What does this fold into?
Amino acid sequence: MRWVFMLLIALNLLVYVQYSQPGPVEVGQSGSSVDEIRLLSELDDPAGIGKPSEGGVEAACGILAGFEQESDALVLRRRLLKLGVEARLGSVDTDAGTDYWVYLPPLVSRQAAERQLKALQASEVDSYIITDGALANGISLGIFSRAEAAEALQRHMVSLDYKVLVRELARTHRSYRLVLNGPAWRQLNRLSMAQVADDFPSVQMQQKPCAGIATAEQVK
It folds into this structure.
């Protein structure tokens, strides 16, 4: 009986040791920290990554516009250069309307044009010989800003048996400006923009992307 009792005690110890060992850990259990680890590149926009950098912003240049005379623009340009601010002289032609040219078509020779001119001047018609271009040896009777005035003269000359034509001429207005690149524009802002405005009250100050200025203007 004693050996049976000892056997039971041994079996109980064996069972206790077996069930007291920790069980295996299951990978992927709810709450496991393994699933929370992600690469930085997988995050949507960590700490602002993906936003355009300051270097990607299009550079801004400055324009001092509104000079009717080239000499006025050059005066300001020289003043800016004394302050260490470089500026390029540019010009822009804008549409200023339409003129109407009344004329007689070209004659066969210069001599014929001179005879025609003498006849017109004898009738007290203001005129001159066209010397250049496709209408050379024609007779100009004047350029008018109003279509009605040109057409009235045309009707009058036709009534005198002259073949008179009217041609439209595009009228342009040229203004001058100074173009400053990005560093020069910022430098001018740091100096005295108000002083420029006081000395040149008609000047218009503009800021534009640098990339679009050179193609839009005749810059020197």
User: Anything to note?
Assistant: Residues 21-57, 215-219 have pLDDT under 50 and may be disordered.
